[in-house]
Amino acid sequence: xxxxxxxxxxxxxxxxxAHPDDIEYGLAAAVAAWTAAGKEVHYLLATRGEAGMAxxxxxxxxxxxxxxxxxxxxxxxxxxxxxxDHRDGVLVAGPELRRDLAAAIRRHRPEMVVTGYFGAxxxxxxxxxxxxxxxxxxALGQSTIDAVADAANEWIFPDLPEEPWRGVTYIAVSELSDxxxxxxxxxxVEKAVASxxxxxxxxxxxxxxxxxxxxxQIVDMGTLTEDERRRVGFRLxxx
Length: 239
Hints:
It holds the Pfam family PIG-L. The protein has helices at about 25-35, 60-75, 95-110, 135-150, 190-195, 200-205, 210-225, and strands spanning about 5, 10-15, 40-45, 80-85, 110-115, 120, 130, 170-175, 180-185, 230-239. It is of the alpha/beta class and about 240 residues long.
């Protein structure tokens, strides 16, 4: 059965990620499609990615990666980017992270919460062996799903100053293989590539390959299907 289109009966989405550049590995193409259609999208980052640049101390890498993420978000029409300032590399799925995510959901008041794939391993189409998913990604994804319910319940974190938010209709988790839902991003691939290119210093440390070539290969891996269609896939849950 072919994937279904994503539902359109929402106006504001909150995209939750562990690190700067996580959203740009394909998901930003869907964000570009949404903002082009008049949707309002906010970003929430659990860390500043300060442990992600070899040879650059966290005190220098954190502000640099934060600035790259803000520029990257602006390319696809996102002006609201919040950082929770958890420590990069050691996110733990549990009450502390859930509390901060729930508070942010209450602040941003989305109808749809979006997060990245958080299974233990992942395999892009045509790639073998599989990749091991980041521990931060695994912790962040599970905590995000739990935090949607926490944000709606005034008794779980009663010390939070924000009013409970019960308006989340959908939780969307990105899915590379056999997604039940998809966003057609054929008209938004170039925006996604340009968005990832804003992580220039980060990508320059990953490879000697030109940044633009890296970005295009990464976005291709995240959006290109076996039949040459361009899509970003999701698995949907009720909020």
